[in-house]
Predict the structure.
Amino acid sequence: MAETSLTDESAAPAAVLPARAVRAGDRAGAWRSRRYRWDLRWSPYAFVAPFFLFFAAFGLFPLLYTGWAALHQVELTDPDTMRWVGARNFTRLLSDEFFWNALRNTVTIGLLSTVPQLLIALGLAHLLNYRLRGSAFFRVAVLTPYATSVAAATLVFVLLFGRDHGMVNWVLGLAGFDAVDWQNGTFASQLAVSTIVIWRWTGYNALIYLAAMQAVPHELYESAELDGASRFRQFLHVTVPSLRPTILFTCVVSTIGATQLFGEPLLFNGGAGATGGSDHQFQTLGLYLYEQGWVNLHLGRASAIAWAMFLILVLVGGLARLLRGRGEGR
Amino acid sequence: MRALRAGRLTYVVLGLFTLGSLFPLLWTAVAASRSNTRLAQTPPPFWFGGNLGRNLSVAWTDANMGTALLNTAVVAGTVAAGTVVFSTLAGFAFARLRFRGRRLLLMLVIGTMLVPPQLSVVPLYMMIAELSWTDRLQAVVLPALVSAFGVFFMRQYLAQALPAELVEAARVDGASSLRVVWHVVFPVARPAMAVLGMLTFVMAWNDFFWPVIALTQNGSPTVQVALTGLGRGYIPDQSVIMAGALLGTLPLLLVFVLFGRQIVGGIMQGAVKG
């Protein structure tokens, strides 16, 4: 009885307890304080351990192993047998026209999707920043594309962009234009794939800009107004500069996303596999990695492509740092 | 914060944005209620037809969407729950506990956010092949169970919402770390945990690249894997494909209708601090 009440009341300082209980609890108390110290010291590590254990097993180890696998010939059908080939997976990439084609397409689609997306998002955020009736509705509405998966979105857009009976060509036809072959044209297909990306991510980026706009101090606008700046000039000279770090952040995130573009070009192709169109016209690096690894079964070559993609991201990251550094230096 | 009153033009433009955002989804439903032959005619249909039930049931059974929905609910639910609990524990430790190496470990967490998942996909596949996990749900659950973004998100929230005195008071009362977590941290963190849970659920539900590699159409597909099978010609009927897309999207749309405000709030919160 006394024991249980003691453990329950571990809260109470010893002095308040009756003398008998203190004597009985001496040993328990010592043990308890040891346990307490031990708890204080090691619990933090226990709390962060799950993250690091899972990351080590499913993040760090595979990451390093990719570099190792890239130096071998490994086939998907027999992943246990690895034959050392040195840098051959990398050197063959340099003379691989499909790799350069995929790199070119990734850059083009990346620009076609990221630039309009962020510009539209900026304008949309500006509108959402007005005092609005039903602002909650508009915010959720423009975010719904974000809830739509790559797969579901691409399947719909394949139909909308259909050459013979698609809605887009039908509207173009009403306006007097010829039907566009959205799947087989090089630029047309890249534009169509970019449209899917733009549709899914504009609202999301607009909300991020909106959050940043709401943090811009009111006084900046007031003094701009005193200087006689129009609303458009205020947007250009107060809002945009204040948003600079956020804009840079979204640029980096969108660029990372664009580099990894995979689902849209895979499914925009319909049943024709991972080639990214009959002439590889919209095959991205992500898709080429998948084709090498899981269609052509060359896991070593796929690893080399993965490292090439990583290199590109490092370059982009370095560029962003450079830009930010210059921005802060002003 | 500035709040200029919106003019009529603002509403018109925002209305157009809303229409543009919702139209592809609405049209998915329209196409799912038509027939394959009708979708191969011009002009495309603008209103619902009578084939929805038939298309949904074909997608449900023949395209394995029923299994896929169940699997995805299990996967996304487990991933969201795991991420929320682990992130809260780690976020609490980083925000309010003192231990050696704290700063370094936190920098490591943030650093892992910059590593693109595609870089590790080949060895990951070799791993699950070795473990005979291909086509098992654990192959997509376990790698997604922790999230650097989640840890960072919870740390930022708790650093501001959890007063250090509250933790101290519980300590003085002799509460163990686990009791502090249970009785102090979790109650305080609940709003952020809910937001993180919803964001993670949406992301896990829509996860594409890795599930498409690790799972197959006829084994235990997630929704995205089943839709990929449909898109690659598994059933050459466009109206059924649209019914599948509709089935795979509806659960998330429901989440958005119910919790859209909170999700919007979460994204905006994450943006300001991130």
In short: Chain A touches chain B through 107 residues (CB under 8 Å).
